[in-house]
């Protein structure tokens, strides 16, 4: 029984050695098939990605500092309004009374001015007549007193007129009108109820012009510039995209507290949409691709050709049918390709998705159909 066991083990060992020898012979005789890509000049751009929110360029929020009773709401959400159109009116009972009283005061002051003016004119006529006749003349003091009364009356009239202006302004402040042509986005007022001081009574926005506001981390924020271009996409837009231009970069970074603690500082940017798509609405979330740099005719390899050892980057270059481990220096990159600033030449072939089994000097052959850039 033991003899049979030893015979079996010896037979297995011989078979293993034979297979190993065959594999070594096969490897030495037949180059390993690898998928390869070519080093080629291409155009490439470096991008920054972020998320943002759509906001209108121009909007109006109707707010009150003190509560007042709403007497009329003249618009509905989604309605288009023109400049000067009434949006909401508060109860004007008190201010109407104040305007009416101010008008009475103006009329009374005007009557006093008219009476003082007529009195002064009569005295002046009497003084003129006495100067040419035999009758005794009027005392200059009487004339001065009449002039003083007229001046006081005019001052009182001016004050009453100013009070009327103030009352009319207060009356006008109870009637809120559209300052721009646009669409009503919010209505937070109801006739008969007190106006809220926390929420705007009405919000109107011009939807023909939109911005996108976003927050960038401090590294990416240092790379973007006013005037830079951006591509905006969203689920609402589907396969289409909208172009935009950076019009504003915040001068200071902001750190917002979170549950986990303070987050990293971010810098706000504002992007003006070159054209507003019909599908975009204020408040929508969109994705941004901001173009930082564009280069033409640079040498590049597919990203899957690169591998790292330590802090250095390498590729396996195919030279005369054998692998050459080559260190490369990198420039800008995108999702598919990486710029090579040194280490390779145009037309070189490099192995894609190199495995750990590949070794310097190994005989290889590109698979049929591979080798494209």
Could you characterize the architecture of this molecule?
By secondary structure, the protein is an alpha+beta fold. The protein folds into four domains: 31-46 and 295-366, conserved putative lor/sdh protein from methanococcus maripaludis s2 fold; 48-57 and 208-294, Beta Barrel (Elongation Factor Tu (Ef-tu), domain 3); 58-91 and 174-207, OB fold (Dihydrolipoamide Acetyltransferase, E2P); 92-173. 28% of the residues lie in helices and 37% in strands. The protein is built from four helices and 23 strands. The strands form five sheets. Strands 3-11-16-13-12-17 form a six-stranded antiparallel beta barrel. The protein has a four-stranded antiparallel sheet with strand order 4-10-9-6, with no helix packed on it. Strand 12 and strand 13 form a beta hairpin. The mean pLDDT is 87.
Describe this protein with a few key phrases:
alpha+beta, conserved putative lor/sdh protein from methanococcus maripaludis s2 fold, Elongation Factor Tu (Ef-tu), domain 3, OB fold (Dihydrolipoamide Acetyltransferase, E2P), 6-stranded antiparallel beta barrel, 4 helices
